[in-house]
Write a structure and sequence with these properties.
mainly alpha, 5 domains, five-stranded parallel β-sheet, Rossmann fold, 8 strands, 63% helix
Length: 714
């Protein structure tokens, strides 16, 4: 026998999404089990019960509860009356339950359980959250704890009464269905696709509602009224009215005000909310919402709350209309708090919404420099994309940050260009980025990058700038270049306590240490150090960062120590290719890389590459006159290996030719390659012809194939 929920026998609307997965789950529930269906309003609990009643095996009976049923007499009477409509065994109880003082605990409850025993029955109780009276709760508790093994009991509502089901749960006889189960998934919405409703519109509906079933239906109604998903004044009115009346209308005013504050921030933890709201009651509100869930409101770990897009937009409009100053205050306080705790991504998003470009530029500059040292230049570039050309001309922090990021990525030609723009912006605006009173930040970057020789004054300035980690690294690098390996090793080892927070600096530190260990014959220590660094390298996504060329060179050299020819060759050519992309800057580290690569090329028997590398080191030496130790190492290698000193190296590709070769593997035409390399098309053609001659080929395609076979390009 089958019966329908609300007494009318109507099946669910064809416009609704079929919940076949949930229904199949329900059909597999074993008899003698309890199903709890708990979610806030609008999650389709009642509709799902209707659908289950239409499809369930056995006898489904749905009992909808109202607030006036919150007494043992009214609840018991209503329950028996609904069951008696479909079960003859229960009908004899009608006269007794309608008497003046029915005795439920001792008489009627045992009779009801006896009448239900053995029946293939699915009893669905809807809106159980209205039951709060202790005697009424005890009636439900008795039903749950003495449930006949032939039945399934479903308790559906916004929250459960304190019914004791723990023992049955331990027996595996409780099935819990939550909001997460009831949310519609994006693929389920595909059943709504039609010529009038595109996939893009369904994406928008899902983005707005987060799968909240009532929100999906509301968006569909709004679209039917306006022809546009979620837009238009009529659509906005429909959504606002529903949300005000059906979602927010039943909430206490202070709770709604709290959700308005949350919506302004989008997502926040208790601490941030308390600071932004200048209050200490956020945890209390979260506890209320966990007890009485609200649609499209998510609480995780009891400490963080987020509001879905549809409700967020509505709550923000409400607060902005009523009190726009509070919106600004909330954003300002929260951004300050998050920035102080280095939660940069969240702080940035709030500052963007705050609309204060000067403050945003200052924040990006101060935090972006640290992120660049960590190797997270992609994050900083995303931040920089929010600024317009007008901002670049108004705030010297922006071109300065571009220069810092380019420095961290090894694009030193771009460093020079951005510093020129920064200088002009500072001249027009009359100010520098607020870091130091006595040193221009541009000078720091040019000297750190090696574009200009570094001096003691700049090292002192870096300390005042708060860039002590970078200053210590630069000091260690230059001590190594001068040949004071003991002091360099000590400085770099002492730096490890602080550089762990900056992965790019840490990888460079390990690379220089590995060079020192290689130079002093400590092969085992060097190999272990590089193995540790490779894990960090990968976790931080720095393997392709061209500034890490010295690390690749060290990997190749230690692989040669181990006799691993394959890894030696791979590391050699990776370092070689990175060096072609860093034709300027970092002269001391580049010289160290050349020392290791010349040694590696000789071990590989590639005298031509060794000769070319030695020759290419000469102009670098001119930019690092303090690196006398590295000069002596290169001269010693040439003296000990006549094939380097005497061989002109005409068969090996030069740095310029390698750079052109890498672009030959792209689809770029010659003018585009010239633009990328900042040279003339004629220069590109000249280098390409030299590449063809040295590789023994005649066409671009042949050159690429030959270069790949030789490991010159990927």
């Amino acid at each position: 026998m089958q019966t329908s929920l609300r007494g009318g026998g109507a099946r669910p609307s064809a416009r609704l999404v079929p919940r076949s997965g949930l229904l199949a789950r329900f059909e597999n529930v074993a008899r003698g089990s309890i199903v709890t269906l708990v979610a806030a309003g609008g999650y389709g609990k009642s509709t799902l019960l209707d659908t289950w009643a239409c499809a369930a095996s056995g006898t489904p009976v749905i009992v909808t509860l109202e607030p006036f049923h919150d007494s043992v007499q009214q609840l018991g009477r209503h329950l028996v009356e609904r069951l008696a409509e479909h079960l003859p065994t229960v009908a004899p109880m009608l006269r007794d339950v309608r008497s003046a003082e029915p005795d439920w605990p001792r008489v009627l409850m045992p009779r009801l359980l006896a009448a239900l025993d053995g029946l293939d029955l699915v009893l669905l109780l809807d809106d159980v959250q209205v039951i709060e009276d202790s005697a009424a709760v005890e009636l439900l508790d008795s039903l749950a704890n003495h449930l006949p093994s032939s039945m399934v009991l479903v308790l559906a509502g916004r929250r459960l009464p304190p019914v004791r089901i723990a023992r049955r749960n331990l027996q595996g006889r409780v099935v819990s269905v939550t909001e997460a189960d009831l949310e519609l998934q994006r693929d389920e919405l595909e059943t709504l696709r039609s010529p009038q409703l595109s996939s893009t519109e369904l994406d928008r509906i899902y983005e707005l509602t987060g799968g909240w079933p009532a929100g999906v239906r509301l968006a569909l109604l709004a679209r039917d009224a306006t022809g546009v998903s979620g837009n238009g004044s009529q659509s906005q009115w429909l959504m606002s009215t529903y949300l005000d009346q059906e979602v927010l209308g039943s909430m206490p005013g202070p709770l709604v005000a709290f959700l308005e504050d949350v919506a302004v921030l989008g997502s926040a933890d208790v601490g941030t909310l308390d600071i932004a709201r200048d209050a200490n009651d956020s945890a209390t509100y979260l506890a209320q919402l966990e007890t009485n869930p609200a649609p499209m409101v998510r609480i995780t770990d009891g400490r963080r709350i987020a509001v879905q897009a549809l409700l967020t937009g509505h709550l923000r409009r409400r607060l902005r209309t009523r009190n726009p100053a509070r919106v600004t205050t909330l954003l300002d306080r929260a951004a300050t708090s998050l920035g102080a705790r280095h939660r940069d991504a969240e702080a940035f998003e709030l500052l963007v919404r705050l609309g204060d470009h000067a403050r945003l530029a200052d924040f990006c500059y101060r935090r972006g420099a640290a992120l660049a040292m960590a190797g997270r230049t992609w994050t900083v570039r995303r931040w920089l994309s929010h600024f317009t050309p007008a901002d670049v001309g108004a705030y010297p922090e922006i071109p300065m940050l571009h220069a810092i990021v380019s420095c961290a990525e090894g694009d030193y030609a771009a460093v020079v260009r951005w510093l020129e723009i920064q200088s002009e912006t500072a001249r027009v605006s009359g100010r520098e980025p607020r870091d130091a009173a006595h040193v221009r930040p541009a000078e720091v970057i040019t000297e750190v990058s090696g574009i200009k020789p570094i001096g003691a004054a700049t090292l002192e300035a870096m300390t005042t700038l708060g860039w002590t980690v970078l200053a210590q690294l630069v000091g260690g690098v230059h001590a190594m270049g001068e040949g004071d390996l003991v002091r360099a090793e000590g400085m770099l080892k002492a730096l490890s306590t602080y550089s762990s927070s900056y992965p790019l600096v840490e990888v460079l530190r390990k690379a220089v240490l590995a060079f020192i260990l290689s130079s002093t014959g400590r092969v085992t220590q060097g190999r272990e150090l590089l193995a540790e660094g490779e894990q960090l390298w990968d976790r931080a996504g720095l393997r392709s960062n061209r500034v890490t060329f010295l690390y690749d060179a060290a990997l190749a050299r230690f692989a040669a120590h181990s006799g691993d020819r394959t890894r030696t060759s791979e590391g050699f050519w990776t370092a070689r290719n990175k060096l072609t992309d860093v034709p300027e800057g970092l002269p001391v580290m580049r010289l160290a890389a050349h020392v290791l690569l010349v040694e590696t090329a000789l071990w590989l028997g590639d005298a031509a590459s060794a000769a070319t590398l030695a020759r290419e080191a000469v102009p670098i030496l001119a930019k690092a006159p303090q690196a006398g130790y590295l000069r002596a190492r290169l001269e010693a290698l040439s003296t000990a290996n006549p094939e380097i000193k005497d061989r002109p190296g005409e068969d090996a590709l030069t740095t310029a030719e390698l750079r052109v070769l890498r672009y030959l593997a792209s689809y770029y035409p010659v003018p585009r390659i010239a633009a990328e390399l900042y040279v003339s098309p004629a220069t590109v053609r000249s280098h390409a012809q030299a590449v063809y001659r040295k590789l023994g080929v005649h066409t671009r395609a042949e050159a690429v194939d030959a270069a790949r076979s030789a490991g010159l390009i990927d």
